[in-house]
């Protein structure tokens, strides 16, 4: 029998699972939260970009990596997928002494790699990220197009098992600058995203899977997350959704239906994944995602050394899998009277610790 850990308390300001008052995120809310001298704390800044060259880029600045095989390590993770689908992923490990971060703003240094931010007259920030590692790197400016946001307080408490914080300094930005790969540097532009997480538990202890993504339409930006917890917290589902019209965030809610369809097995990740995702906040917004391309599919045990892989798989019964997907979307927004409809393409991810077909 699974011992119960208590009730999950989400940070919504109300009424119910939503925020009636939505305020732009302050820069200090993207500052450093943790204490690297304390074990069991994990924190990272995440950036991604879809580029006009056809490349997709993901950069993590890990104060303390939460992922299996790299847990607790400080470093920079760089993932570049070419237009032809060739993937280059590297995690550059640093000592804790090579890490510096401000608590009152998003200013981070890991070795010679940095995050810096400037505030514009419009109130929207410009983030500059610099990565220079061997034959990989980037110098990119992310000019935010949407106000920063957090669901309620930004923190969910999982009984006595721990907490998780999540803020989205920008769900949408214009991106410009340079990328270096295999020693060749080229100029790029595109659209980007940034969020920031911190927590004090290991994912498999509480979470069965999560699905996260966003949708970029002409006038609207949508970001969502669905986190399915395990029996320790009565299989509670944390749901968060943000909708913006232009710069302004108009909806911040956890009151929506989330459904998955058409499960398909992937041999690389060794898990089923849904080819369709449906999101429905009645009379507010609907979105349907249909997978058209798998950017990444990974058995996360591949990050372990052989001994740890054996322990995780055979003794702890861990089976973590990861997907980064490109999907076609259909979006329907009901706020403000006449429904607005749009369609396009978007990127989203799935992390699985327990097979989806066991639910």
The gross shape turns out to be globular
Seen as an oligomer or otherwise, the chain set is single chain
Largest sheet: 13 strands, antiparallel
Q: Give the total of beta strands.
A: 22
Helix/strand order, N-terminal first = EEEEEEEEEEEEEHEEEEEEEHEE
Distance between the termini: 17 Å
Sheet/helix structural class: mainly beta
CATH class: Mainly Beta
Polypeptide structure, described:
- The chain is mainly β and 359 residues long.
- It has one domain: AttH-like fold, CATH 2.40.370.10.
- The protein is built from two helices and 22 strands.
- Strands 1, 2, 3, 4, 5, 6, 7, 8, 9, 10, 11, 12 and 13 form a 13-stranded antiparallel β-sheet that branches. It has a nine-stranded antiparallel β-sheet with strand order 17-16-15-14-22-21-20-19-18.
- The longest helix is centred in the last third of the chain and has 10 residues.
- The protein is globular.
- The relative contact order is 0.15.
Give the secondary structure arrangement, pairings included:
Elements: E1 8-9, E2 42-51, E3 56-64, E4 74-81, E5 87-94, E6 99-101, E7 108-110, E8 113-119, E9 125-133, E10 136-144, E11 155-158, E12 162-181, E13 184-199, H1 203-206, E14 207-216, E15 220-229, E16 237-245, E17 248-253, E18 257-266, E19 271-281, E20 285-299, H2 306-315, E21 321-333, E22 340-352
Antiparallel strand pairs: 1-11, 2-3, 2-13, 3-4, 4-5, 6-7, 7-8, 8-9, 9-10, 10-12, 11-12, 12-13, 14-15, 14-22, 15-16, 16-17, 18-19, 19-20, 20-21, 21-22
């Amino acid at each position: 029998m699974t011992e119960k850990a208590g009730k999950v308390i989400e940070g919504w300001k109300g009424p119910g699972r939503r925020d009636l008052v939505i305020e732009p995120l302050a820069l200090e809310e993207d500052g450093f939260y943790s204490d690297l001298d304390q074990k069991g704390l994990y924190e990272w800044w995440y950036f991604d970009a879809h580029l006009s060259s056809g490349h997709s880029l993901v950069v993590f600045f890990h104060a303390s990596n939460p992922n299996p095989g790299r847990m607790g390590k400080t470093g920079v993770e760089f993932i570049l997928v070419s237009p032809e689908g060739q993937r280059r992923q590297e995690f550059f490990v640093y000592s804790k002494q090579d890490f510096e971060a401000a608590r009152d703003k998003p200013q981070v240094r890991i070795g010679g790699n940095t995050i810096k931010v400037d505030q514009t007259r419009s109130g929207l920030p410009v983030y500059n990220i610099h990565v220079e590692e061997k034959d990989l790197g980037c110098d990119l400016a992310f000019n935010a197009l949407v106000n920063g946001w957090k669901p309620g307080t930004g923190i969910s408490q999982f009984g006595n098992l721990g907490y998780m914080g999540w803020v989205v300094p920008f769900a949408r930005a214009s991106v410009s600058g340079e990328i270096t790969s295999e020693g060749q540097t080229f100029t790029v532009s595109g659209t980007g995203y940034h969020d920031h997480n911190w927590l004090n538990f290991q994912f498999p202890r509480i979470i069965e899977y999560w699905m996260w993504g966003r949708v970029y339409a002409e006038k609207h930006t949508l970001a969502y997350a669905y986190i399915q917890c395990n029996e320790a917290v009565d299989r509670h589902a944390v749901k968060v959704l943000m909708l913006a019209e232009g710069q302004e965030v108009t909806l911040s809610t956890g009151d929506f239906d989330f459904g998955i369809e058409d499960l398909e097995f992937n041999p690389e990740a060794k898990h089923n994944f849904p080819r369709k995702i449906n999101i429905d906040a009645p009379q507010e917004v609907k979105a349907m995602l249909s997978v058209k391309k798998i950017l990444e599919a990974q058995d996360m045990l591949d990050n372990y050394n052989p001994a740890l892989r054996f322990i995780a798989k055979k003794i702890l019964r861990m089976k973590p899998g990861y997907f980064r997907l490109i999907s076609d979307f259909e979006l329907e927004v009901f706020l403000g009277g006449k429904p607005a409809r749009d369609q396009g393409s978007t990127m989203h991810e799935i992390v699985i610790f327990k097979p989806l077909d066991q639910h």
